[in-house]
Amino acid sequence: MQLLRLAWALTAAALCFLLLLLIHNKILREGQLAAGTCEIVTLDRDSSQPRRTIARQTARCACKKGQIAGTTRARPACVDVSIVSSRQWCAMSPCLDDEGCDLLVSQSGWTCTQPGGRVKTTTVRTRT
Question: pTM above 0.90?
Answer without folding.
Answer: no
